[in-house]
Amino acid sequence: MFAINVFGVVNCIKATLPQMLTGNSGKIINISSIHGLQGAACETSYSASKAALIGLTSSLALELAHTNIEVTHIPLPATDTDMHAKLKSDYKIMTGFDFVDDMPLLTPEQAANIIIERAEL
After folding, report:
1. Are 52 and 10 in contact (CB under 8 A)?
2. Contact status, residue 27 vs residue 70, Cβ threshold 8 Å
3. Which residue of 10, 16, 32, 104 shows the fewest CB atoms closer than 10 Å?
4. pLDDT tens-digit profile of 7-19?
5. Which architecture, in CATH terms, is 2-120?
6. Separation between Cα atoms, residue 73 and residue 86, nearest integer Å
7. Which residues, 6+ apart, have CB-to-CB distance to 102 below 8 Å?
8. Spatial contact of 6 and 53, defined as CB atoms under 8 Å apart
């Protein structure tokens, strides 16, 4: 999880930030998760990696505050993906109970629209 959710983001920032600094302009929008703000059952590694991403984003925003580069994250709620479906299955296997999720799931299209709207601000 950390290889993608944290170090993958670090590598993307390393590749793009020099050009943003040269132009004194840009936006870095990291996709985090509500589970990075508050953990979730059967998602310890995922939640920890998203919490690390939120910390990375907050720190980078402070480091670049003197520039015209915006750094933010979007803590998306659960999205209806194969990963979420597997979580439900894993939870049942691990606990013997059905996964109860009282939070409505976003469709992938809804998640994409949230990201697009944030990027256009």
Report:
1. no
2. yes
3. 104
4. 999 999 999 999 9
5. 3-Layer(aba) Sandwich (3.40)
6. 25
7. none
8. yes
The answer to whether the beta carbons of residues 112 and 120 sit under 8 Å apart is no
- Other CB atoms within a 10 A radius of the CB of residue 35 amount to 21
Quote the CA–CA distance of 17 and 71 in Å, as a whole number. 11
Sequence letter at residue 75: P
- pLDDT tens, residue by residue, 84-107: 677 667 666 666 666 666 667 889
Report domain extents, the chain: 2-120
- Residue 26, sorted as left (phi over 0), alpha (psi -120 to 50) or beta, turns out to be left
DSSP character string of 16-70: HHHHHHHHT-EEEEEEEEHHHHS--TT-HHHHHHHHHHHHHHHHHHHHTTTTTEE
